Amino acid sequence: MRFRHPDGSTVHLAYCTNVHPAETLDGVLAQLRDHCEPVRRRLGRDRLGIGLWLAKDAAHALVTDPSALRGLRTELDRRGLEVVTLNGFPYEGFGAEEVKYRVYKPDWADPERLEHTTALARVLAGLLPDDVTEGSISTLPLAWRTAYDDPRAETARVALRTLAERLDALGELTGRDIRVGLEPEPGCIVETTADALAPLAAIGHDRIGICVDTCHLATSFEDPLPALDALTEARVPVVKSQLSAALHAEHPHLPEVREALAAFDEPRFLHQTRTATAAGLRGTDDLGQALDGEALPDASPWRAHFHVPLHAAPAAPLTSTLDVLKGALARLVGGPHPLTRHLEVETYTWQALPAELRPRARSQLTEGIAAELTLARDLLTDLGLKELP
Hints:
The protein is of the alpha/beta class. It contains 12 helices and 15 strands.
């Protein structure tokens, strides 16, 4: 979906396909047929943006076989779909029964991460629509916080500088400006937008910036306005923003609130949980750990890294952080010029919701994704952007 900003530039809105597990190119092609095109049709649009997640095997197939890349581009066009952004965070196995800590490997100190991201950049340059020159890729925020010493930190810096050089060369070769954004996430070396400032300054390249995920922003209790203002002041490019909402519990000391939270403690994904105290942010790696005894203070609200559907906040006594998303979006695209032109709805947890909230049929998932995109569209038009055909 495309929107005209009041300054005349085009803002792109997509939804991320990591909600549809696929590890191979054949699986990606099936996604387009079974999910992405039906969402487009449900919205009644001739064209729909998707943020592709390409696992390592799919990316390798596309970067090593020009005919495969041309075939994917043709299939996108045939189904009324377009790609300006990729999710390069998960490397493989995102649809496994248990993902948890595995999603953070390989990290930026491992050579596989550089090679995979380089492959994604080359693929994206070949998938961009003819009238679009800018592409974006979100990536791991360096590494999970453990086992990341000074030598690995230096290796990661060198890898990202090498990536920047490769992106420069790709731009000269193709005329396409591909940028990569570190995506701050609770528990990682770069947990907050503030944590990103020093590493990005050390890299010092305008093709390496930040991806602002509004669920992660909220989970870490970051106020979106000063956070985004600090990025602007530091001249850190916001490569893209993922529009998402976290799980919020206002009174976690109450038994009924803990019972409601326990329904979201599921075995597939890691749900880092945080609370803001007078002594600073406190947290656990997973929601179950927070609910286990007194691992986390419960005198103040808790937020958990659980991407809940944008249009459907959990039932009381829980809610979502949609207000944080709205505040961030107002600053990202509501000013005289957009801070980013790539927005992506990223609710990958539909099948991890409590059983009574999960879609039971493919058509229900289609309806849910379409409803999220409709909400995002309405927020953008409320900010003065004009929806384009």
